[in-house]
């Protein structure tokens, strides 16, 4: 087992990518702290993983004191902390015309500042364990979709945070910090988000090969499989790295707007 004996806090793990990462961590021998806003869903995850393998904390990750509470839950339940997965995020459409400053601040608070605060709160224990941080970003960090302005900026800032701390924390404290940037992933929220926009219930079965050369988009379990490498000792001294998990080369790829998925007329 690649994570045997490790304790991992996974923010935003009541569903989607975070849930898949938590499940895979336990399968690899770790114990996890499940976190999110959906108490019922979180309890389901904990029950599935068994209570001696998982603990639950429900709270807005950007609330004052939330990072410290997550660290305390790990220590109180499992006695140590080896890794942080910063997965919690708000994904919501916005562009230059619809993004006001209050909205922008909220996105940055959750997607960028809260991960920083959680790393800060966990750092003494990560230093003790010679542990690591894995930030979950997005390929949108490189530029972003037309209607994901604030989200894309927040993930770009997270990427710079990863590069910066990945160097300084490893050199000074022996703590590695890396990031994976998923592409388009078929999470529960993504399915419902598209349905709310007027798409068919099975919209994900018919996507242009411009966006899904493989004939489908990514599964949360595939992101989780990659996450295990960065959380395990297998990744050795590697730190400050950002890896894109997408089906095609991203940089320089600029599909015409006419190919972007649109809701049916």
TrEMBL record:
Any one Pfam family match given in the protein's UniProt record, by short name: adh_short_C2
InterPro entries attached to this UniProt entry: NAD(P)-bd_dom_sf (IPR036291), Sc_DH/Rdtase_CS (IPR020904), SDR_fam (IPR002347)
Record-stated family: Belongs to the short-chain dehydrogenases/reductases (SDR) family.
Gene3D superfamilies, alphabetized: NAD(P)-binding Rossmann-like Domain (3.40.50.720)
UniProt xrefs under CDD domains: SDR_c
Name of the molecule in the record: SDR family oxidoreductase
């Amino acid at each position: 087992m690649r994570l045997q004996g490790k304790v991992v806090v996974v923010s935003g793990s009541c569903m989607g990518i975070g849930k898949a990462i938590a499940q895979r961590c336990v399968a690899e021998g770790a114990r996890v702290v499940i976190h999110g806003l959906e108490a019922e869903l979180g309890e389901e995850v904990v029950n599935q993983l068994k209570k001696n393998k998982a603990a639950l904390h429900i709270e807005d990750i950007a609330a004052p004191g939330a990072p410290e509470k997550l660290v305390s839950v790990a220590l109180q339940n499992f006695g140590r902390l080896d890794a942080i997965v910063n997965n919690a995020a708000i994904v919501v459409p916005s562009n230059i015309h619809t993004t006001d400053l209050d909205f922008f601040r909220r996105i940055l608070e959750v997607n960028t500042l809260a991960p920083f605060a959680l790393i800060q709160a966990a750092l003494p224990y990560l230093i003790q364990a010679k542990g690591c941080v894995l930030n979950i970003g997005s390929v949108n960090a490189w530029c972003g979709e037309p209607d994901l302005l604030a989200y894309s900026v927040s993930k770009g800032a997270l990427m710079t945070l990863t590069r910066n701390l990945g160097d300084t924390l490893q050199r000074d404290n022996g703590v590695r910090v890396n990031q994976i940037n998923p592409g388009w992933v078929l999470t529960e929220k993504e399915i419902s988000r598209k349905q709310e926009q007027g798409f068919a219930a099975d919209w994900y079965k018919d996507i242009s090969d411009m966006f899904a050369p493989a004939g489908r988009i990514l599964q949360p379990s595939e992101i989780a499989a990659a996450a295990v490498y960065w959380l395990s000792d297998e990744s050795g001294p590697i730190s400050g790295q950002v890896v894109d998990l997408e089906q095609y080369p991203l940089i320089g790829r600029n599909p015409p707007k006419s190919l972007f998925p649109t809701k049916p007329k």
